[in-house]
UniProtKB/TrEMBL annotation:
Protein name: Protoporphyrinogen IX oxidase
Subunit structure: Homodimer.
Keyword presence, Iron: yes
Residues reported in the UniProt entry to bind heme: 10, 91
Functional description taken from the UniProt entry: Catalyzes the oxidation of protoporphyrinogen IX to protoporphyrin IX.
Keyword Iron assigned: yes
Record keywords, A-Z: Cell membrane, Heme, Iron, Membrane, Metal-binding, Oxidoreductase, Transmembrane, Transmembrane helix
Pathway: Porphyrin-containing compound metabolism; protoporphyrin-IX biosynthesis; protoporphyrin-IX from protoporphyrinogen-IX: step 1/1
Gene: hemJ
Any Pfam family matching the protein: UPF0093
Family membership: Belongs to the HemJ family.
Length: 188
């Protein structure tokens, strides 16, 4: 019965953790874009984003990570033989990378608070896609285990990354064209 409790709360932790990671970097994007606003709007927006980032990171995202990892340890303790399976080693590698991403977000948050962040909003949009790649890889490994078709999966993930990059570029172009259109209308 413990296995099911661990699994249920492991899934809850995953949902909370990823929700926080997806939204956190989105806030970073808005935070960086606040630099384009005139004062006092710029300061007001940056202060608000900084508050939202801290609360999201400390109250939602980090507890979600802790619950996820704690429940994973519980799951493994109920079935320790799973540690001998190759798929779990790869999944754990992705989880370690995701934990690194989580902590890197903390670093970016501190840089933003000090106005020292060198990331552009477009670069942050690309960074914001990393958890999606991790999520897909982790879920596929958890579902397929040792039966994961690695060649199809690798090509699928690569295609997903290319599609994300193309979408980010197209969105940047659209934003630039929209800005040029507004400026042209203002000059008329």
């Amino acid at each position: 019965m413990a296995y099911y409790w661990f699994k249920a709360f492991h899934l809850v932790g995953i949902v909370v953790w990823f929700a926080g990671l997806f939204y956190l970097v989105r806030l970073f994007i808005y935070h960086v874009e606040a630099n384009e606003q005139p004062e006092p709007a710029q300061t007001i927006l940056k202060n608000q984003y900084q508050l939202m980032e801290r609360r999201l990171y400390n109250i939602i995202t980090t507890p979600g990570m802790v619950v996820t990892v704690a429940m994973a340890i519980g799951l493994i303790s109920t079935e320790p033989e799973v540690l001998k399976q190759g798929w779990l080693h790869i999944k754990l590698l992705f989880v370690v990378l995701l934990i690194g991403y989580h902590h890197y977000c903390s670093r970016l948050m501190k840089q933003l608070a000090k106005n020292e962040c060198r990331w552009s909003s477009q670069q942050l949009r690309a960074l914001n896609e990393a958890p999606t790649v991790f999520l897909v890889a982790i879920v596929l490994l958890a579902v397929f285990k040792n039966n994961l078709p690695t060649d199809i999966t690798a090509w699928g993930i690569l295609a997903m990354i290319v599609a994300m990059a193309a979408t980010i570029q197209l969105y940047a172009k659209k934003r630039r064209l929209d800005k040029e259109k507004v400026m042209a209308q203002a000059q008329e």
